[in-house]
Amino acid sequence: MARDKNEKVEPAEQLKRASEWWTTKIVDIKPGSIRMRGYAIEELIGRISFPQMIWLMLRGELPTAEQSSLLEAALVSAVDHGPHAPSISISRMAVTCGLPLNGAMASAINVLDDIHGGAGEQCMALYAQISQRLDRDEPIVSATEAALEAFRAEFGKIIPGFGHRFHPTDPRSVRLLALVDDARKSGFVDGRFADIGRCVESVLERQKGKKLPMNIDGATAVIYSELGFPPPLGRGLFILSRSVGILAHAWEQTQQGGRIKGPMPPSIPYNYTGEPERHLALQKTTDQ
Amino acid sequence: MARDKNEKVEPAEQLKRASEWWTTKIVDIKPGSIRMRGYAIEELIGRISFPQMIWLMLRGELPTAEQSSLLEAALVSAVDHGPHAPSISISRMAVTCGLPLNGAMASAINVLDDIHGGAGEQCMALYAQISQRLDRDEPIVSATEAALEAFRAEFGKIIPGFGHRFHPTDPRSVRLLALVDDARKSGFVDGRFADIGRCVESVLERQKGKKLPMNIDGATAVIYSELGFPPPLGRGLFILSRSVGILAHAWEQTQQGGRIKGPMPPSIPYNYTGEPERHLALQKTTDQ
Amino acid sequence: MARDKNEKVEPAEQLKRASEWWTTKIVDIKPGSIRMRGYAIEELIGRISFPQMIWLMLRGELPTAEQSSLLEAALVSAVDHGPHAPSISISRMAVTCGLPLNGAMASAINVLDDIHGGAGEQCMALYAQISQRLDRDEPIVSATEAALEAFRAEFGKIIPGFGHRFHPTDPRSVRLLALVDDARKSGFVDGRFADIGRCVESVLERQKGKKLPMNIDGATAVIYSELGFPPPLGRGLFILSRSVGILAHAWEQTQQGGRIKGPMPPSIPYNYTGEPERHLALQKTTDQ
Amino acid sequence: MARDKNEKVEPAEQLKRASEWWTTKIVDIKPGSIRMRGYAIEELIGRISFPQMIWLMLRGELPTAEQSSLLEAALVSAVDHGPHAPSISISRMAVTCGLPLNGAMASAINVLDDIHGGAGEQCMALYAQISQRLDRDEPIVSATEAALEAFRAEFGKIIPGFGHRFHPTDPRSVRLLALVDDARKSGFVDGRFADIGRCVESVLERQKGKKLPMNIDGATAVIYSELGFPPPLGRGLFILSRSVGILAHAWEQTQQGGRIKGPMPPSIPYNYTGEPERHLALQKTTDQ
Fold first, then answer.
1. Is C272 helix (H, G, I), strand (E, B) or coil?
2. Which residue of C has its CA nearest to B271?
3. Is residue B180 a contact partner of residue B197, using CB atoms and an 8 Å limit?
4. C229 to chain D nearest CA, in Å?
5. Which residues contact A35 (CB under 8 A, 6 or more apart)?
């Protein structure tokens, strides 16, 4: 039997360590009882909305109705951007390889990584840098310029959350910012991050000489920052949202059928640029 | 360059085929315009709830407010059942291996397969069998007995959606069924599948001589069936719900830290039952 | 603290159960000692080949040199079939989304499911059915016809392992079968499954009126069956082989760069066939 | 139909772009012909070993027999380290959730990320730093000290490739280094990275006041560096190796059976440390 270096621990102590191996503040389960963050599940079902449950699970407390509405708007906004997005096409290809919905969603969600799913998170981190400078009473324009400079020095020239290779203006961003403005007027959010996002947009336009409009990542980053989510949860919330589109496309592909569907029709060749034909006999270095 | 058998197709026709390679009714994107199922995204953001968006994406039309409330209750109910569930522990282990939230969620969602994530789908298929028998005017008890017998003949003795190895009664199911009863009284749902679910429960109790209470999969299967979802989407909706718990635990583990955390403390040995020590010299069949 | 129904088990018994939760015959680890199937790892390193290690891990004993050579030929044969294969393009797309090699490989390997990765396994199961009929002294042609008929009744008209939508003859199959013939002449394998595979090919040609040549899945199925692997490991071995191509393409894409690369150039539109533009105002059934 | 900004490109040009979307030097496929890095696949099958194929795919040329032997030894060494490793237990848990071998392998391989699968890669990067200092004629001890200091400043105090929480000495490392020494004596490798690895070990011992012996990651990093692989392929090769153990355990679990197997026996509770029971009525901030 495999054993550890440490062999002399008492069984009761061993068991205690085993219990503590999995420690959580999220859910407490006893026979007949399931409590999430202290609330009995049966008190939550039918009384709180799905976005409120998401907030409770991630942050430990329930949001206000107004906070929940903003979160809901952001979740609605990012569900899908069509099969040119790798996440969506992978989901559909996976189905044609025989995968059930869970497998298709897993392969697709996996690619919502730094570049495809992390722009919102990175944008929130950028906004947070600017916000910290505002706390130190820097004016917003110079705070933004300094934060952009620091960001570029560390991560390169692409500023996440701004510009789109397809949309001249992103209709989602315009609408989301309008909702933030409404919430600010009503006093439900502070509005600091809406100001920051717009300042980044205007500084970028001046620096580039053309408009790089705030995209969906930049706009949801405003909302998630206003609501107090830490940057990594910007990625997590985007995943919850985009999962809806990934599921919808997997299901549509299931109904369409198709087998082992690659990225393009087989009649369109790919581009081979490697070695021309050669033979093992020419290869002196093997022992075969 | 790699080529296809079919070499004589005109470029315009080739391009048409390429476009049709990805065909969808879900989303239409033009520069500056994103329409989901025909609706401009900016009309949906801030006006429909996240569960309504889920319904629209999966089914093509918007639900009524009452349909959406039942869907929301089911989505809220299944978010988490603690780290003894493989999906949750895998999510947490993945984080300690260095994965960001998308990767942890992917490895975890992947295991919501036939056994861990498919019980609701299977239960919906069982209910649908009973429902078809009701359409042929069979009495509900004999319809249920016959469907159970057919199910066992094909899939074995475990009836998905009933019984729980931990909870004597599942508080989620009781609450969900009460919500269906309310909706039935108000005329928003038919109630047929609530009757079917309860009949399965009572037939199983009689057959087994003990209560196998309806569990979360059996109860959400009632709701999703009442709402007209096809069985495979029972799995899909469960995944959207459980993804919230998977994300919450991944995030909690991120904050706790820990490196390469296996399933149990290393001080608890695993059980090796294989070959005792042996040596290659004893092995005559190799050429080494 | 969450607790189980069963509360009275002694700590020592609890611990024993914990140890037995993970039971394996594959590897025994003690401080300073790692034994695989009974052999100290340091005795294996540098003395057995990688395919021999694969065999040992999967089957518990070492293969002969001749068995290992056939396994090696099959592993070499299936490493790659270009980026039109979903597994390969997914691997490359994943890299452009920011994933490291492990993540790209995971998303890609995941899709080697029933249709894209399971053909070899299914073909082995078909061969095994024919082989069982031979054991009952049925002539090979009628055994093959009967097994094909049973297969089609259960799984549909596509016979895994035969025919290719691209190659008129598959150069890998021809070479692999020649190696099996050599091994048969030398008495290292029985040759039964080579006969079975060729008989399936000729029966299919007669039934279809055209040649459906044995493809890579049909040929590796011959080898893995000759070597005594059970059908599910046909899928497993294919995955080990194809993983090499998946890794090579992920690595090439890493070096090429590219960001969020979808399946086709964005300049080629996809085909939207859904609802034309419509508005929420027309939707009476929502409460918004 | 969705369209791009750029609408005036001719079909032939569009097609050319589509072809170039997938550009590779790895594999060229024509009807009846599959060439890997220029070699017809049928010339490779049965003539080159699986490790030689791995090398050819990743690097474009075939290795010598001696290079291939060292690679093979490293691939054999890292296949498995038992179910306490997250990769292995995830593979087994996945099977009990209903996943086939591909899905179990995907969820497991996914977690071979920076911490669980990236130590070899990081160690190779460290060795490369030291090697560059040697090129500038720094003495090896001061080169090692400087590289360690730079590494700690950037990545923290854990030096990948050295020390093991279980093994006082790792039998795999000792054996692998001995093979490198043999190859150096025969002139097949330079030996520079073996010297570097040993120097890191001795500097760490002096700095820590106790031995932090080279582990499997440190030893395979020596071999892969000697063979000229770039650091990211250290991770890739580890994945190919560990995939064998992941598959073997998935297959053993398939044969053992079990359903929805979590990390520990359900009779061992996990540790809930969150909010005590509370009620929605106490929550003033919701609108429910």
1. strand
2. C23
3. no
4. 12
5. A27, A28, A29, A41, D277
